Amino acid sequence: MQQGDADFFFVSSLDDRVRAKRLYFQPGDAGYRVECVFETEGWLDQRRVEVPAWRAGRAPTLDAAAQPHFDHLERAYRIPRFASRNDVPAWLHETALVVALHGMHYTGYVFNDYARMLEILAWTAARIPAQRVLVFLPAWDGRYYWDYPVYQPSERLGGEAGFVRLIREGQRLGFRFMPMFGANAANRRQSVYAALADAATSKIDGDRFDLNWVDWDNDRHEEGWLSYMNLGVASWREHLAGRIADVIGRYGVDAYFLDISGGWVNNPQADMHEGMRRLVADLRASHPGVLACGEFLYDALTAFLPLYQVYAPRFAPFVRSFSHLSHPAPGRGSSGVHESGFGKWDPDTLLLSRREGLIPTLTVVDDTFASHRDAMEAVRKRAAEWAESAQVRVDDGRLETEILLYAERSDISEELARLAVHLKAFGDLLESAEDKPLGKQMEFLTQEMLRETNTTASKSRDAAILATVIEMKNEIEKIREQVL
């Protein structure tokens, strides 16, 4: 709170865990009465509560008041500086432009199908090195939010064949791809929801907490079908991790985007933050080199998520950001699949990319490529200028380390060796003369074969290998169906 030209009053928590803290300001005659409120973890049955320390005082400037708090966060959560992070692939250091290609609106309206997306990327690759462009795919999986949490290519956008072609040919040009997933959203009307219902979030008082703040059909009323899910609950975390892993393994994408990543609610079920951390850690262990990205952040998230869609200047030394998918697109100012609707495209917003750590972003909706390529060219030009001014210098030791890590991550010899062992074991079972049930052993072996093929796909960027892996997975699935 600023009380004078050089008089700032501050209050901050010195907690080292993600727990609920609030400040309550009660106005009075000569100022405010401030309450520092702490809530213990609702999911723990505790007989002893340790309240975090609070820091309060005065400072002559806003920076002098805030900086000690951010220094505490860096130490408490062990947040690495961006240049030294080991969860950032080398290509992100060189990324100069994010292109957001909007897919299908909640209503079913199609902004860009997979074929049009590829056409847009071919145009882009002729104007900026594709190796420096990250392609963000919101609503790639069908109706925005409605189809959560199925996460598979939409038939209306071009089906699996169209999606495979988009990724394969786009990567051949040099682009990196990042499809969107909802970290905590599931439609109760989807058939898969019944198996996940135990992960629906309740507030600390036991009331149901829904993701119910969007009027998707413009009837001026809440919808009631979208549940806010808790990543701390195993059923939801395992389902989401499985869908993301399948998309990585099946299509070879380079990154995954976690929508509403910064959502956190104190609740009686499980620790949402720990669930998010485990999700990212497990996917990183099984798919090293694949980037994890969040929509927006809170302090502790930056310890393990290095890229965000919402810019936070104080965290620029630690993470990178790009502009939100809802930013008005060139032309009519459409927000595409996002619920905000329409705004005003302002070319001056390109100047935002002068901020430290903010990557220039181009949003492409239905009419952008058809009617506003001049504006697209302006964003492209700004990205090129940003890349020139923000050129990253990598020392020889760092470069050598990155090359060795890439070589290790790309080596599929162990996966092929294990796959050969599983195939031999399966063949031995088929030739076995023993008169006993073999179904469980065969099912286990098919699961192991799928695991090895998925890992092979996640490590490889070769189009021919990825195509072969897809065929292998289809054949293994056929075998598994017969075994079951």
Describe the structure.
- With about 475 residues, the chain is of the alpha/beta class.
- It is built from twelve helices and 16 strands.
- The strands form four sheets. A nine-stranded parallel β-sheet has the order 15-14-13-12-11-8-7-6-16. It has a three-stranded antiparallel β-sheet with strand order 1-2-5, with helices on one face. It has a two-stranded antiparallel sheet with strand order 3-4.
- It is globular, with a radius of gyration of 24 Å.
- The mean pLDDT is about 90.
What key attributes describe this structure?
globular, 484 residues, 36% helix, 3-stranded antiparallel sheet, alpha/beta
Short description:
The protein has 12 helices and 16 strands. It has helices at 62-76, 90-93, 114-125, 159-173, 234-251, 272-286, 368-371, 373-389, 396-410, 413-431, 439-459, 463-483; strands at residues 2-4, 7-13, 20-27, 32-39, 54-59, 97-101, 133-137, 176-182, 185-187, 226-228, 255-259, 291-294, 307-308, 320-322, 358-359, 361-364. A 9-stranded parallel beta sheet has the order 15-14-13-12-11-8-7-6-16. It has a 3-stranded antiparallel beta sheet with strand order 1-2-5, with helices on one face.
In percent terms, what proportion of residues is strand? 15-25%
Count of DSSP strands: 16
Task: Write down the Rg.
Answer: 24 Å
Q: What is the number of helical segments per DSSP (H or I, 4+ residues)?
A: 12
Helix share of residues? 25-40%
Shape by Cα distribution:
globular
**Widest beta sheet: strand line-up:** 15-14-13-12-11-8-7-6-16
Order of helices and strands: EEEEEHHEHEHEEEHEHEEEEEHHHHHH
Largest sheet: 9 strands, parallel
- Overall residue-averaged pLDDT value: 89
Coarse structural class: alpha/beta
Poorly predicted spans: none
Q: What is the first-to-last residue Cα distance?
A: 65 Å
